[in-house]
Design goal:
Radius of gyration: 18 Å
Structural class: mainly alpha
Order of helices and strands: HHHEEHHHHHHH
Low-confidence stretches: none
Number of helices: 10
Distance between the termini: 38 Å
Length: about 220
């Protein structure tokens, strides 16, 4: 696997993967010396990566105790998904008017990657492919500032996605809903696409309500 261009990006990617895969679970202390040694890096890029994750809300810092993985919070999830609803609706409306055949091919390629990862029970790969799928839908909007905010919101909720995808029923629902989303995109039906994306997010939140409470308990 090709290593990212900077050590900090490499460390950040590894920390994200560890949180998504459950290697670092909610509330778990982050042992910087151990992680730095395991990744073969100094503590400097690790500290910078942790600051990035702290800004996203994925880790928390407490004086005299250090960093730990953030606990799952329904309140945080609802706020992030409400922000996504508003911003992604705008991007999707504009993108639908600009879809090219190349854009639609990227969307369907990402959809196929989601399905292949689901078939292989590869949770990390499915989360990564799902992200490519959604941003393939939104990036044709040509709104880089808006999408930069949306990416930050996605970064903050990868741990929730990991919980959601742990269920066979939820993975099946995602695949079914993606099929409908792709059809709306191919037909350039903006209102339908926005409605389907809203339903897609709402179903995830509804499924996570009880799960997040159980995880915290």
């Amino acid at each position: 696997m090709q290593r990212p261009p900077t050590t900090q990006e490499f460390v950040l990617g590894e920390l994200r993967r560890s949180i998504v895969s459950g290697e670092l679970s909610p509330g778990q202390p982050i042992r910087q010396d151990s992680i730095a040694q395991g990744l073969g890096v100094s503590r400097v890029p690790l500290r910078e990566a942790l600051k990035t994750l702290e800004a996203e809300g994925q880790v928390v810092y407490q004086p005299h105790r250090g960093y730990s993985v953030a606990e799952l919070s329904l309140r945080d999830l609802l706020e992030v998904y409400r922000m996504r609803e508003l911003l992604e609706a705008e991007a999707a409306a504009v993108a639908t008017e600009r879809f090219t055949d190349t854009d639609l091919a990227r969307i369907t390629d990402a959809q196929r990657d989601v399905e292949e990862a689901a078939d292989s029970d590869d949770l990390v790969a499915m989360i990564a492919a799902n992200r490519r799928f959604h941003f393939a839908l939104l990036e044709p909007s040509g709104m880089p500032r808006l999408l930069r905010v949306v990416r930050t919101l996605w970064d903050a909720t990868d741990a929730y996605r990991a919980v959601y995808y742990n269920s066979d029923a939820n993975r099946a629902r995602v695949r079914h809903e993606h099929d409908s989303i792709v059809a709306a995109a191919q037909d350039r039906r903006a209102e339908e696409l926005i409605r389907l994306l809203d339903d897609h997010r709402r179903h995830a939140v509804d499924a996570l309500r009880g799960t997040i409470a159980s995880e915290v308990d």
